[in-house]
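Subgroup meeting minutes
Present: P.N., E.W., G.H.
Scribe: E.W.

1. P.N. recapped why we're keeping a running log of single-chain structure predictions: easier to compare across weeks, and new members can see raw inputs and outputs side by side.
2. G.H. added today's entry (370 aa).
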Amino acid sequence: MKHRTWPPRSDGSPFTALPLWKFDGSDKSSELATKQRSKSKSLQRSAALEDPDQVRSLCSGQRRPSASSSASSSSATRPTLVSEVRDFSAVPYDVLRKIVASFSHPNLNAASLVCRSWNDALRPMREAMLFLRWGKRFKHGRGGVRQNLRKALDSFLKGAARGLTLAMVDAGLVYWEMGKRDEGIAFYRRAAELGDPAGQCNLGIAYLQVEPANLEEATRWLSQAASAGHARAQYQLALCLHQGRGIARNVSEAAHWYLRAAEGGYVRAMYNVSLCYSVGEGFPHSHLQAKKWMKRAADHGHSKAQFEHGLSLFSEGEMMKAVVYLELASRAGEAGASPVKNVILQQLPAASRNRAMLLADNWRDLPSMR
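Output recorded in log:
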């Protein structure tokens, strides 16, 4: 069964989203038109009661100029603004595709329902989204297909050719992993210039890692992505500010971007925010804030944070909790965690030891960005 999204464009109407009544002179249409006009007049009378000037003009027998006549006279003296144009189908296709180039799948589908012309214009973008999905399946071996990097790259390239920035970023990432850095940077730049924050972030990081590094371009693109709310870019920009790499060193500004990235779920930034509060660098010294952010980083799976939070709990006498975090850090490769854990285990009764190990076995890190 085929479903129509919106009616076709009405004759002579600038609106394409809703149909207008057509009067063919029949009795039924005349009756309907009369009802519509009477309803409109009643609405105008009720609106007039809310307008004191309109009430005075009615009482004096004078007619106030209608909104349509005043609008027409004012439109003759000033240019029409773009925001006043109601005909969505008048947006040029190339402009429309640039607007939706970085849309997610749900947003792309929503844009396709605006009107028929948008639905037709965005068909290549919807195809690109399908290629993107297949590319991710081939890259990670999901959805019942075997992992195949070549097929993944081919799917990403087809999506990128249709203008989807998400596919451009993934194509650039595959090229980068294959050692073809120039091709990877080229796709990152295409996505970045279309306003995609992930493309801007990856392009900035790529300029930091190439030989020789292009620090000025790196910080420029990282700043754009960070301002757009990209957590990884915010963290990378904070590192550049903290180290004075490609930009003047500014510890207070670096701490600000660490905090922005941490609030956005970036686990490395959570750890760095804790260190800033701990040593009073960029933030006022605060043991409570340092402990709070260290625990958040530990709960999100940061191994060093798990180790340090375990030591903090040990110093506060929270032995069983300390064992849990130290065991997690030890499993993640923190060599210093295991000796401390063994010392604490010798002081705990058997029931508490078993309980701590059970908690560590059933541990699940909170979701985060890395």
